[in-house]
Amino acid sequence: MCGIVGILGKEDVAHDIVDALRRLEYRGYDSAGVATIVERGLQRRRAEGKLRNLEARLVEVPLGGKAGIGHTRWATHGKPTETNAHPHMSARVSVVHNGIIENFRELRDEMVAAGCQFESETDTETIVHLITHYLDAGKSHLEAVQETLQRLTGAFALGIIFADDDDLMIAARQGSPLAIGHGTGEVYLGSDAIALAPFTNKITYLDEGDYAVLRRETVEIYDRDGVRVERPKVQAVAGALTVDKGNHRHFMHKEIHEQPEVVSHTLAHYIDMSTHQVAIPDLGLDLAKVDRVTISACGTAYYAGLVAKYWIERYARVPVEIDVASEMRYREAPLADNGLAVFVSQSGETADTLATLRYCKENGQRIASIVNVRSSTIARESDAIMPILAGPEIGVASTKAFTCQLSALACLAIALGKARGQIDEALEQELVGALTEMPRHISSVVRTEADYLPLATELSKARDILYLGRGMSFPIAMEGALKLKEISYIHAEGYAAGELKHGPIALIDEKVPVIVIAPKDALFEKTISNMQEVAARGGRIVLVSDAPPEAFGAEVMHQVVMPTVHPFVSPIVSAIPIQLIAYHTAVFMGTDVDQPRNLAKSVTVE
Ligand code: F6R
Fold first, then answer.
1. pTM above 0.70, yes or no
2. Which of 280, 318, 343, 434 has the most CB atoms within 10 Å of its CB?
3. 298 C-alpha vs ligand 1 centroid, how far in Å?
4. Residues 454 and 394 occupy one common structural domain
């Protein structure tokens, strides 16, 4: 999603702004721009496409100025053209904006009626005209922004500079995160702390509804009621600020390889390794009395939740309702008394997940969230958080966050099962033992990476690929299809293996590879029967399994040989081959693996 950077500096800032924007590239964007205050007023440079185009523009036509704002835009209102790129400006004010102004049409009509000329199709330009309108009416900078904020409906983060004051930047946060960085005689603004890492590690996060007046020597923060407030200055964790590919070609590759380590960290957070007992944080309710669990999330995080449904229902015997957040937020689903609602989100900023969280909160649910970013909005609005310790995930396609989410959810399922008397000590030891062995198994799969290259070459020729799985392997099949389509752009679908003959089998011919995830568990024979149905119709099978070849009874094009693991953890270990298949297929096809087209890392709009 869009990125914001602002600097009130001692030297010219355009170059530093672009550098900081580069650290936000992972969020996804399709145009970029920077505006500064120079003697003759506000100046800006903007360009379609990647930051290198903006840099080239800045080389052609350099931009001075010791105060400025920059933006990477992920188009929502209007095409990703230079005219629609931020910053937007009038002669008096320049604005960068993340999020969506929902009532922009009526505001725009009002401004047009008042004689304003709009040059872009964006909702953001409305903000520029509103602020200018209030300044022209004699309001101060702060008053003009305050009046404007009161007119805006939607979720947004704003960075604003003014032509006539080069020691002033105003920031506002409503629904989209913003962080202020404190330097020495300099101050910074960023849509996340990663952007500010080269400048400072002293960070203040704005709260929901806050706005702030930044000057080089002072920062004043006001809450949504206009009351001056103090927000803590925190030391950003070093790990959160390292954005480095190391020796890896892509962040996604690095993140796949980090999984044994980050999964261990996450498990160690929820398991007492000396007693092999699970100890999750107090969720503020008696787990023994939880009658129903509601889970909601989007995309990959949703698939993690879907695996958790199998775990919780099977091991804790608690019914689980799960839905993608974009549906659940509007479904008006009735929720149980004494219910626990669990939200899974890497970024902690996903708009639909957040809206569903608020719905569940209003309807009396206890809110627990599984998040990677502890300072995120979802984390802050939850009654309890279960952090994952994945570290910053930069590749747009989620990998290590997924396996860490699963690790935390597995611990939650065990804790629920224990509390409800469904998991005794022996079973807890067995399941925890399986979890603690998992990083080693993940490592062993990652080490077989070279085997994926011929397979990836073969798969890259396909137009469509099916993924099949049963039980807990079904969500992994869907996750496999999502991973492949988002980074290789090959069409892929994940199905429950048993659903095949209810329709999808019509697609099978020798051109459609079918990736079957079939660990040797209680459902293995059933899945293999479905696989044989595919083979009988000429389908080319890629089998992801620990079973020996004589167990298949059908010819397979390729077997990804898996380690034998406890069925409880097999969905987590099976996530690794599907990530490697997607990654190597995409690399072979030469796509932009870390920043796939049209995608954003943090989806802060509906
Ligand atoms: C896919 C992917 C997305 C995210 C989804 C939710 O690889 O990364 O499907 O899982 O956008 O994002 P978070 O977890 O940040 O709420």
1. yes
2. 343
3. 6
4. no
For residue 106, the enclosing domain spans 3-235
Which of 298, 349, 479, when mutated, tests ligand 1's pocket best, judged by the most ligand atoms within 8 Å of its CB? 298
For a mutational test of ligand 1's pocket, the pick from 1, 324, 346, 376, i.e. the residue with the most ligand atoms closer than 8 A to its C-beta, is: 346
Pairing of strands 558-561, 540-545: parallel
Our answer on whether the CB atom of 393 is closer than 6 Å to any ligand 1 atom is no
Residue where one domain finishes, among candidates 411, 446, 481: 446
Would you call 601 a catalytic residue per the annotation?
yes
For residue 22, the domain's CATH number is 3.60.20.10
Q: Tell me, yes or no, whether 57 lies in a domain.
A: yes
- 404 in catalytic set: no
- Which residue type occupies 222? Y
Write down the residue that tokens 């697609």 correspond to. Answer: 507
CA 378 to ligand 1: nearest atom: 16
- pLDDT of 241: 46
Domain assignment present for 600: no
Question: Is residue 37 one of the residues assigned to a domain?
Answer: yes
Beta bridge partners of 491: 464
Looking up residue 468, the CATH number of its domain turns out to be: 3.40.50.10490
Quick one: pLDDT band at residue 46, thresholds 50, 70, 90?
very high
Protein residue whose Cα sits closest to atom 5 of ligand 1: 299
Residue 605: band (very low, low, confident or very high) from pLDDT cuts 50, 70, 90 = confident
Q: How far apart, in Å, are the Cα atoms of 564 and each of 157, 333, 437, 441, 522? A: 48, 40, 11, 9, 13
pLDDT score at 237: 61
Q: Determine if the peptide bond prior to 87 is cis (ω within 30°).
A: yes
Are 383 and 358 contacting, i.e. CB atoms less than 8 angstroms apart?
Answer: no
Using a 6 Å cutoff on CB, does residue 298 contact ligand 1?
yes
Identify whether residues 572 and 582 lie together within a single domain.
yes
What is the total count of domains within the chain?
A: 3
Residue 194's pLDDT is 81
pLDDT tens across 329-383, in order?
999 999 988 799 999 999 999 999 999 999 999 999 999 999 999 889 999 999 9
